[in-house]
Design goal:
alpha/beta
């Protein structure tokens, strides 16, 4: 076997050539890595940070406000926790979304059904789904946002977060402006007609009333539209007995459910205490057509419904 000795120049050239090749490979790898990083979406949420490699297409939503957000960004989720009630999805999407997979109740979504889907993202609620966050994250990347206890401002923050995730930030700005314009239009009328009156928004139960305060989604929407909430509180809800209701003595009562005759209202309405209320004496008691936009949806569909009903009850001639 013959051995060939490399000259000094040849050795230097070989090392230089190898370095060039190695540098070229490293540069290309860095370019690809930078491109991957550029496409990544980093989302900060209630339970941490979730990184997505690209814009998600197959999305599951476990609360109706998240459905509302996606609908207003012209994105259809493939899976929805709809409480096995398709009418809720029809309400939020104005009848447009009909093809999706139901993943059960919002309180306890069906993890087994979720696991059968090829999901890119799950959007969950802080209050209801924090305890199953790790389980959800094993199925697909998951972000957790505050929906159940959210104010209107928090809904808008969530909407902007979701818009960033799906690459629809400009569209989100348009929708937010539309909602703000609607609230401003109603406020201009409210200032002329009800500026000196307060409004109690309540959901009667079997053992008392639950008021949605100035810090609730409903309360904040109405205050932005010029209506003063009768219960000013940092708490989202307040439980009321009949005596507490009389103590508040609101100018206007709005019942946020249509079936009040199945609640304690049926017992209270015939009492002298209830009849002594200003709102009752002045015939300023109103009942919504459906509780869902008032107490379940918490999105733009709720804003539209609340403004339509409040305007019809209080602002139209």
């Amino acid at each position: 076997m013959k051995f060939y000795k490399l000259g000094k120049k040849s050795l230097i050239m070989s090392v230089m050539l190898g370095s060039i090749v190695l540098t070229g490979c490293t540069t290309q790898a860095n370019k690809e890595e930078n491109l991957d990083n550029k496409n990544q979406i980093v989302v900060k949420h209630e339970l941490g940070t979730t990184t997505l490699d690209s814009t998600p297409e197959n999305i599951a939503v476990l609360e109706l406000s998240f459905l509302d957000s996606l609908y207003n960004l012209d994105v259809d989720p493939v899976a929805i926790a709809d409480d096995e009630d398709a009418s809720k999805v029809a309400d939020v999407t104005e009848g447009e979304l009909t093809e999706y997979t139901s993943v059960g109740n919002r309180k306890e979504p069906n993890l087994e059904e979720l696991s059968t889907l090829d999901l890119d993202l799950i959007i969950a609620d802080t209050s209801r789904h924090s305890e199953i966050y790790e389980d959800l994250s094993k199925i697909a990347p998951t972000i957790v946002l505050n929906s159940i206890d959210s104010t209107y401002d928090e809904y808008i923050e969530n909407f902007e977060t979701i818009a960033k995730v799906v690459g629809k930030e400009e569209e989100a700005e348009v929708k937010i402006a539309e909602a703000e314009n609607l609230l401003s239009e109603v406020k201009a009328k409210a200032e002329d007609k009800v500026s000196n009156k307060n409004v109690l928004t309540v959901s009667p139960k079997n053992d008392g009333y639950t008021a949605h305060t100035s810090s609730s989604f409903v309360g904040q929407v109405l205050e932005k539209a010029g209506f003063t909430n009768a219960v000013q509180s940092e708490d989202v809800e307040a439980s009321l007995s009949l005596e507490q209701l009389v103590e508040i003595d609101p100018d206007i009562i709005v019942y946020m459910r249509e079936d009040i005759d199945t609640t304690i209202y049926e017992e209270w309405k015939d009492t002298e205490l209830y009849k002594s209320l200003k709102s009752v004496k002045n015939n300023e008691v109103y009942v919504t057509v459906s509780r869902k936009p008032w107490t379940q949806y918490r999105g733009f569909i709720s804003v539209k419904t609340l403004m339509k009903e409040m305007s019809g009850w209080l602002l139209e001639e």
